[in-house]
Amino acid sequence: SANICAENIDKFNTKWSNTTESTLVTLTCTGEYTGNVSRNCSSGGKWEEPNYSNCIKSANPCAENIDEFNTNWSNTAENTLVTLTCTGDYTGNVSRYCSSGGKWKEPNYSNCISKVIQLIKEQTVKLVPGVGDYDIVTIILIDLENVTRDNSELRSGDLLTSSSILNDIAKYVTDHKEKLSVDQLEIFASLCNNLLDERNRETWEDLIDGESGGVTSLVNAVTDFNDAFNNVIDSNFSLIAVKENVVMEVGKASSDEITVPDRLATSDSWISDSRTEIKLKLKNNIMVA
């Protein structure tokens, strides 16, 4: 069998992975250097000295920085995208761009997902008729509501994944309305309220700037979930869940028209500052866009 050069970290802290003999490895220079560095794994599985002749120090590097989630960004050459593994109880990776002039852009945490939320997402595969003899919809909603309540550590990946979970549930109950229960509306509204909390305002705005669609996915989930309820509830009755950042009303509406957000009812919430407004009109006792 071929000999292997063992994993090695050189004097400049460049990490060289296990490599088959007689192989030239080329890596991007790290830190505030641009260019690339190469190293040969010679026959017999012995590393030669790395060649740093093409590594040039950047004129305007981004200085070392620790962001709000305690991720440490080392000195980095300008015009460089850095990708790191998410730290703590998170899966995925986070990236950040060092722009020209040596200025850091905001880090992109859209691929960082809490391991707990990821596990809840995996539970949505059980949203299949006949799987289990318990109310999986309610369990998923309760678990996610508990994780997101008063949580100041939610990354953008958590907001996107939570919205995806709610969309999965909304689609499921649309096709299986027998799985709907009154208490789910209250939990669903509380969950949406958690995600739209003031503490998550900048994170949502970063998602919008990053062209990920922002809060659109969450709005779609609320719409579909409401529609499922409206299709089964007696139109002479109504159910209302009122939270600081969201109001969900199904069945017979209390007004001929509802404007979302209600800027009077949510005056202390960042949602009231939103430039987006939806008007729902009453048609046959059902609110429609």
Automatic annotation (TrEMBL):
Molecular functions (GO terms): G protein-coupled receptor activity
Residues in G-protein coupled receptors family 2 profile domain copies: 1-59, 62-116
GO-annotated biological processes: adenylate cyclase-activating G protein-coupled receptor signaling pathway
Domain of life: Eukaryota
GO cellular component: a single term: membrane
PROSITE patterns with a match to the protein in the record: G_PROTEIN_RECEP_F2_3 (PS50227)
UniProt cross-references to PANTHER family, sorted A to Z: IG-LIKE DOMAIN-CONTAINING PROTEIN
Identification of the protein by name: G-protein coupled receptors family 2 profile 1 domain-containing protein
Species of the source: Mytilus galloprovincialis
